[in-house]
Amino acid sequence: MITKQDLLIAQKNIFGFTHQTPVLTSSFIDSIAGCEIYFKCENFQKMGAFKMRGAINAIKHLTDEERQKGVVTHSSGNFAQAVALGAKLLGVKAYIVMPINAPKVKKNAVLDYGGEVIDCEPTIKAREAMAAKVQKEKGSTFLHPYNQKEVISGQGTAAIELFNEIEDLEIILTPIGGGGLISGTALACHFFSPNIQVIGAEPENVDDAYRSLISGKIEINEITDTIADGLRTTLGDITFPIIQEHIKEILLVSEAEIKFAMKLIWERMKIIVEPSCAVPLAAVLRNQSKFKNKKIGIILSGGNVDLTMFFDNL
Amino acid sequence: MITKQDLLIAQKNIFGFTHQTPVLTSSFIDSIAGCEIYFKCENFQKMGAFKMRGAINAIKHLTDEERQKGVVTHSSGNFAQAVALGAKLLGVKAYIVMPINAPKVKKNAVLDYGGEVIDCEPTIKAREAMAAKVQKEKGSTFLHPYNQKEVISGQGTAAIELFNEIEDLEIILTPIGGGGLISGTALACHFFSPNIQVIGAEPENVDDAYRSLISGKIEINEITDTIADGLRTTLGDITFPIIQEHIKEILLVSEAEIKFAMKLIWERMKIIVEPSCAVPLAAVLRNQSKFKNKKIGIILSGGNVDLTMFFDNL
Fold first, then answer.
1. Which among A272, B16, B20, B226 has the fewest CB atoms less than 10 Å away?
2. Distance (Å, rounded) from C-alpha B120 to C-alpha B105?
3. Which backbone phi and psi does A65 adopt, to 5 degrees?
4. Out of B267, B273, B309, whose CB is closest to A307?
5. Within a domain: residue B314?
6. Does residue B11 surpass a pLDDT of 90?
7. pLDDT tens, A272-311?
């Protein structure tokens, strides 16, 4: 169980190792959405995503002995970079298990941050097996991208910063992948600002959390065909109960709606956000009557987009 | 002649009608550049570029009678949008002469801001003739994108905000197109912060300002083949003397260097800037020994990029 105290410790742990990211608004987006939206810009976070918060908090929780043996995770996404950079900042060795077919740009980012990349076959089984092997051989501590208490508490700090800065928010929306961000956000609101309703947003094409909430058990995605690559994962046995307890509603959006919302953010706010970030805004635009005139917070989860194609064509 | 008083009036005039844009830094970019860079983010300015400052200041200088007859300009770029939005905010009619082959996205932006678009043939002569016709028929006041005292004073306010916020800047770099931004910046430093050296940055492919400074007369570009579409214009008879008096150095950069610097800003700072904005950073990266350990300001002039191609390929 994650307590109020856990979140307060997380807040203290991340201080100085993460940015207090800015909250931006767009009068144009407000005018077409029919409500007031405050965007918490985790795309400006260190390494470009909120995952930095959970990684720092988790590493800070290690004992001195554990620190000396390093940390290990398997990820081809933002958590890989977060653990690599977080570990570096805290003087801890990081082993990052990545599938051999992971984009070179992602591997290079991990290497740039000082992480040691360990290749594995591109299956979830192979990833888990390799991480377990490193854990055993090196004695390193395994860090989970979302299904871990310290990681969830860390992610909750983004919401705390948001509602501490912007008063009287009525709703906070976050995307749902493995559930780390929404769990942390829900707990942060529950403990410190219980009037805020937390709503999840998920692509129709990977609606596992939506279905899990209905069926009462963790559902998986048979196919993961969405542009929102950060949201293809399924819930964990720690995140799911928190979501069951605190989240009353998950809104679904189409791929076209995600692209439209993402383009709107890029064009109007002049900031680069990942497709996953655009999912909550897409949900607001699709359900305008629901959000009419409300004061809403949206956590823009990250900004790590491969821009190669765009620049190659310039 | 533009006086200290003109700049103070400009500052007062734009208050409430423009954003005081944020100043951002990137420790990664600093580390590869070998200096401390403070980016003044005019891409976050209203309508997405510093041009808003000059447009507002110019319209604010009109008499009541002039206001009633509206303003006219010819532009297919940011100044068109700046005049359209600035005029709207100040309750003045705006006629924007645009070449018939101007991108639809640019025409729509002007229309969205409430400007009246007047088509003309795609030559500079046709543009000037049509603007003169509107001026005559409607009695509207012509606003020049850069070669006008009030416009230059308005553009100078970006630098004032920058050095008021960041102390002890040694150098400010701006791109040079028609010279409005660099003239305003040079005068702002001259009057209020004379220890700051202002340096221009220009694409090799449109090096008219560089050559003008050497030859002592306004040079033109025979071809305008650069990705930095905001910098294809040549200097005016008002901007050139100011540049002659205050600018000791203009640095040239290649197209590849512009693209590299632009990608660096997008990838690392997660913000969208126009190619023209990347020219000063490209100049810093090309001349590292010159800028070593200096404290530098760079005005990121705007963020209006056509993203259609990128999103169509998502």
1. B16
2. 17
3. -65, -45
4. B267
5. no
6. yes
7. 999 999 999 999 999 999 999 999 999 999 999 989 878 8
From the candidates A26, A40, A46, A51, which is the catalytic residue? A51
ipTM > 0.90, yes or no: yes
Of these residues, B26, B75, B76, B276, which one is catalytic?
B76
Mutate to test the interface with A, among B32, B270, B307 (most CBs of A within 10 A): B270
Whole-structure pTM value: 0.94
Residue in A272, A313, A314 closest to B271 by CB? A272
Work out the minimum CA distance from A81 to partner chain B, whole angstroms: 14
CATH number for the domain spanning B107: value is: 3.40.50.1100
Calculate mean pLDDT across residues B122-133.
92
Asked if residue B169 and residue B234 are part of one domain, the reply reads yes
> One of B51, B60, B107, B149 is an active-site residue; which one?
B51
Residues A197 and A295 reside in one and the same domain: yes
Residue in chain A lying closest to B23 (CA): A22
Domain count, chain A: 2
Judged by DSSP in three states, B131 sits in: helix
